[in-house]
């Protein structure tokens, strides 16, 4: 399957650009080449609605002239010299950036770790269509499901090459398989919908399509006949799927770029207690078959597993070269490549689980809100103020009694982080992975 993408050709093209840029007057430069092949099949009511196959190449050259930088991108490189000359000319007229530059040479990787990134199995449209139909049929078989919102199955292969003018050259291939199903329950204005999905590096790790479809159907049915509860303060348990957004808010707050710009509510909290005692959050670029596993970062540097939070204490920012220089710190291999340069970010970020199941948490809380879905982006990264539309289920005596919708959960993430309690049901399949998370005493706006 790897023959679909010729890594040696990608490396040759990237190397040509780097050589051309140096000849054109760049003091330093790098080139990243990205290519990919993807196939997706959408099915509704047992019939294929759309089959989408895509192939694409993109090469980006970044040049430095002193502390000035510029980037150019192209799908084809017919004349490397002309592209390089244009990039250098652009750099010479851009404002200086004292923190711009390639990664320090002593941080570059010269030996790459062996990682499970590539599944050798290739999918065709017929097989993907069969998997989507199986998921859809299982969802429609659930009592109370009235129609299908569609099902899809996908496969993707991607290749990345990075070449720098100070001696780094590396590449890797990765694969991804996916499946999803959306079910609709009820009729008319009383219809509710929900979905389920799976996404994995290796096909053998994928859940059965019938299980995906059945869960989508069951989730849609249990949302029928929701009510809008009164405004109150209540204990809230975020399902794992909804809790991932809480971890994403944390990732944004500890991004080195936000710290450097002073736009994070955690900017002054390094080394302090941010979460409760015992809380541990780990970022692991080497997680076996992880969604964000990679041998090197967007600057060609290595990384290590970071305990971002240990025993509730904040220990690290996510740093690339530029933000590390601005903050006077050492980069930690979290550079993501995109557009004109790099930006820091997480890899496989995991909120480690606790010891109590969600069911036992609900019994211990007695009554409260189980959040299954969040709406909107109501988070202020500067202040930590939090306000999200939500839907889910009200529970009494530990048992679900009523679907609820059209409510808003409000608070401040500083306070919410300090009171988070993780359940034991970690869903480790995704690059942002959490168990269910309980927070006591959140404000809920309803009727």
UniProtKB/TrEMBL annotation:
GO terms for cellular component: cytosol. It comes from the Bacteria. GO terms for molecular function: metallopeptidase activity. Residues 331-351 are annotated as: Disordered. GO terms for biological process: proteolysis. Residues 232-446 form the Metalloprotease TldD/E C-terminal domain. Residues 29-91 form the Metalloprotease TldD/E N-terminal domain. Residues 119-224 form the Metalloprotease TldD/E central domain. Belongs to the peptidase U62 family. PANTHER family: METALLOPROTEASE PMBA. This is TldD/PmbA family protein. It comes from Roseibium suaedae.
């Amino acid at each position: 399957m790897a023959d679909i993408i010729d890594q040696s050709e990608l490396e040759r093209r990237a190397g040509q650009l780097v050589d051309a840029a140096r000849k054109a007057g760049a003091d330093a430069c790098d080139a990243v080449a990205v290519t990919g092949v993807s196939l997706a099949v959408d099915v509704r009511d047992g019939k294929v609605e759309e089959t989408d196959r895509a192939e694409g190449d993109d090469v980006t050259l970044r040049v430095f002239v002193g502390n000035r930088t510029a980037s150019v991108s192209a799908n084809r490189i017919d004349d490397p010299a002309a592209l390089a000359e244009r990039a250098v000319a652009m750099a010479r007229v851009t404002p200086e950036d004292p923190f711009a530059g390639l990664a320090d040479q002593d941080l570059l990787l010269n030996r790459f770790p062996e990682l499970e990134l590539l599944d050798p199995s290739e999918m065709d449209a017929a097989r993907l269509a069969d998997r989507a139909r199986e998921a859809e049929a299982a969802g429609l078989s659930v009592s109370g499901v009235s129609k299908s919102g569609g099902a899809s199955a996908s496969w993707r292969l991607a290749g990345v090459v990075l070449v720098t003018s100070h001696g780094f050259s590396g590449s890797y291939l990765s694969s991804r398989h996916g499946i999803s199903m959306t079910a609709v329950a009820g009729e008319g204005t009383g219809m509710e919908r929900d979905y389920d999905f799976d996404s994995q590096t290796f096909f053998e790790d994928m859940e059965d399509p019938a299980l995906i479809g059945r869960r989508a159907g069951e989730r849609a049915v249990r949302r029928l006949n929701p009510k809008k509860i009164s405004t109150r303060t209540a204990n809230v348990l975020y399902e794992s799927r909804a809790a991932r957004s809480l971890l994403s808010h944390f990732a944004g707050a500890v991004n080195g770029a936000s710290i450097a710009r002073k736009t994070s509510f955690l900017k002054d909290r390094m080394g302090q207690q941010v979460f409760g005692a015992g809380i541990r959050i780990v970022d692991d670029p080497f997680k076996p078959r992880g969604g964000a596993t990679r041998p090197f970062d967007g600057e060609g540097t290595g990384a290590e597993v970071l305990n971002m939070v240990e025993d509730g204490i904040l220990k690290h920012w996510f740093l690339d070269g530029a933000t590390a220089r601005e903050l006077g710190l050492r980069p930690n291999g979290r550079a993501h490549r995109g557009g004109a340069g790099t930006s820091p970010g997480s890899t496989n970020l995991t909120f480690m689980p606790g010891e109590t199941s969600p069911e036992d948490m609900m019994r211990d809380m007695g009554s409260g809100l189980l959040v299954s879905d969040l709406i909107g982006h109501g988070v202020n990264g500067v202040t930590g103020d939090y306000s999200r539309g939500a839907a889910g289920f009200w529970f009494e005596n530990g048992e679900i009694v009523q679907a609820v919708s059209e409510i808003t959960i409000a608070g401040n993430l500083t306070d919410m982080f300090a009171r988070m309690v993780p359940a034991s049901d970690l869903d480790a399949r995704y690059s942002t992975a959490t168990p269910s998370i309980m927070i006591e005493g959140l404000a809920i706006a309803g009727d």
